[in-house]
Amino acid sequence: MSAVATAGGAESADNLTMGEDGQPSRKKRTRNATQMEHNRVAQQKYRERKKLENRDLQQAVDMLTAELAAMKALEMRAATLEHAHRALGAQLAGSEAELAALRVEVAEKNATISRQVDQLAGQSETIASQQRVILDQHAKLRMQEEIIANLKERLRVNIEDAYNSAHQLVNPDPASVCAKMHAAVRTALESAKDMEGLQDTLQVLSKLPDSMVVEICKNILRTCRDLWPDLAARFDARFPQFAACAARASAGSCATAVGTLG
Hints:
The protein has helices at residues 2-15, 33-167, 174-191, 199-206, 210-227, 229-238, 241-251, and strands spanning 16-18, 24-26, 255-256, 259-260. By secondary structure, the chain is mainly α. It starts with a helix and ends with a strand.
């Protein structure tokens, strides 16, 4: 191309002439067939080269355009991912805060449950201890009931013996009957000291002073008439003179030889 341009330039310089007005003017150029063929071939090569250059340039432009579009898409994707990342980060931070609060709440509930379990264990032990005490008290009450029933039976036997002894008297003295009753109560208390269970208490009862035994006699006299009405009826029928004495003793105003029953 440079050779063609140089040749063209030389020809242009050769074709310049001075006009009448003193200005250079182009004179008509004449070419032969060989020059025209060379010029045609040169122009064709030039056009082909330009076409190839334009094609390469267009391909480069297309490639750059595609790369730019891909870059734009990547930028948009990156922006979308960044937004999603920030949203997930905020959500994760909120979830972590909520999880921390739940952990604190769970720890507090575990501590509360642990305290309640300890309290229930203590209450269970207390209840078990109370149940053992109640069962022990029930056992003692049953034993006391058996002892009281045994004492009542012994008192009944002794009182009936006293009645039978008084029945043999022709003119029984109320004081002698009360003395026998006093002796019967004392005998029952002394014989109870060997009973199984509550030996210490019964040993104390066997050594009661006479004044307390008399009080027991008063209570027995009142109670026996309620517990054993058959004995009271038999005794009153056999000894009417004792009916008034028994009534006074039941009212707490009878005086006997062994003490005051009133």
